[in-house]
């Protein structure tokens, strides 16, 4: 928490966990997360029944195009959930949960061309989307409150609030910028 004084008004910011957040999978994403888990609803809505397939390979070959960017998704389930595009080292609490997929058509729509460079950009976006989704799953999402206090009293009142900051470092940097605006 930081505090700055301007004339007779003092401002501070507070950062708290955002408990009114929405899943980033409800946003406009480049990829689609096809997740299959018996205990959790993860990823995006889809109609694929993984029980119709004998293996992950068979599912991927049947459901996704050969030109699509298809990346496996893994889950670690121990005192919280973590998703990754690489397997976890603990075989007891982790395993394959599905795929992140960007279709060839979506790549062309987003980047105007389908080539190695646009596929690399799609892979980077998948990594970024997995990172953001992990922040959501782990509760690493914050609200910023700007409070004010007048010299005459010792009570702080909220003057503004902002939510949906993914990652504490990002929330902290935005809070400092917001506080600077109030102290102009």
Please describe what this structure looks like.
This protein is of the alpha+beta class and 184 residues long. Helix content is 29%, strand content 33%. The mean pLDDT is 93. A hairpin with a 3-residue loop joins strand 4 (69-77) and strand 5 (81-84). The chain contains four helices and eight strands. A four-stranded antiparallel beta sheet has the order 1-2-7-8. The protein has helices at residues 56-63, 104-111, 116-138, 168-182; strands spanning 2-6, 9-17, 32-35, 69-77, 81-84, 94-102, 141-150, 157-166. The longest helix has 23 residues, at 116-138. The chain folds into two domains: 2-21 and 141-182, no CATH class; 24-138, no CATH class.
Keywords:
about 180 residues, alpha+beta, 4-stranded antiparallel beta sheet, elongated
Portion of residues within helices: 25-40%
Mean pLDDT: 93
What is the N-to-C succession of helices and strands?
EEEHEEEHHEEH
Class inferred from helices and paired strands: alpha+beta
N- and C-termini, Cα separation: 19 Å
Poorly predicted parts: none
Largest sheet: 4 strands, antiparallel
Strand adjacency order, main sheet: 1-2-7-8
